[in-house]
């Protein structure tokens, strides 16, 4: 299986492929495929990177990954701990948008859905308030076969196309131009950053991982993520800090700072506020209020 481009096993007699997966963790490398992927995270948590987008994903969330959009659902570290076995449960629906648009969606009644499908390049996250209806329809797609599955799938696309405030997963189409060699390099970079965020990572160190000079690395990383190396690393750390705060397993915000790789709590507070829009304490208070 290639790191960047691989083929979803699509039966010749099927337009839609449904996979109900229960695994120790998500596929652990940056990859892409020509099919659009609808992903319901039934159970699991970690960091989602899609194009130049990154945030934590949690159980119950629904995402649409665009055709040929480079992405990785990076499971939390705890999923790789053999001493405490965990699992992820996901439902994935794959379809070829070109094939679908040329056939089923070519009907005049499908104009709205066809426009929606043609705009899926950067992917979306479904708003939390719309999840239950979408999940019900996904279950129908899973349960039905043949023409009934197609009908349920069209209903699912209709729900998506009429949902307001879908959250885009990326702001750039630059990932479509990434070659396989570049994809392998970006995967090595992401794997290293996500695996070593608790430690100090120098520009020289990460440049060596990418086999580039520091100056060339900065240009390369910015080109493919629309972010600087430092801002991307800080996002990884802040995403992990949110997880720690929600878990309640810390002795103070200086402890959260230490656990997530920041050199001091002042810098941590500044970066957290800039990234999340709230201070760590405000974030914790808002989370606890939502719990009721």
Structure report:
With 292 residues, this protein is of the alpha+beta class. The protein has two domains: 16-168, Jelly Rolls (Sandwich), CATH 2.60.120.280; 197-291, Arc Repressor Mutant, subunit A, CATH 1.10.10.60. It is built from eleven helices and nine strands. A six-stranded antiparallel sheet has the order 1-7-2-5-8-9. Strands 4-3-6 form a three-stranded antiparallel sheet, covered by helices on one side. Strand 3 (46-50) and strand 4 (53-57) form a beta hairpin. Helix 2 packs across helix 4, helix 3 (131-143) runs antiparallel to helix 4 and helix 6 (203-209) crosses helix 7 (214-225). The model has no long low-confidence stretch (mean pLDDT 89).
List keywords for this structure.
Jelly Rolls; 44% helix; transcription; 292 residues; alpha+beta; Arc Repressor Mutant, subunit A; Homeodomain-like_sf; transcription regulation; RmlC-like_jellyroll
Number of DSSP E strands: 9
Q: Please identify the top-level CATH class of the largest domain.
A: Mainly Beta
Helical content stands at 40-55%
The portion of residues forming beta strands comes to 15-25%
Strand order of the largest sheet: 1-7-2-5-8-9
Main sheet, how many strands, which sense, barrel?
A: 6 strands, antiparallel
Task: Output the structural class.
Answer: alpha+beta
The number of domains is 2
Shape, please? Answer: globular
The helix/strand order is EEEEEEEHHEHHEHHHHHHH
InterPro entries: Homeodomain-like_sf, HTH_AraC, HTH_AraC-typ_CS, RmlC-like_jellyroll, RmlC_Cupin_sf, Tscrpt_reg_AraC-type_HTH
Organism: Dyadobacter linearis
Protein name: HTH-type transcriptional activator RhaR
Pfam families: HTH_18
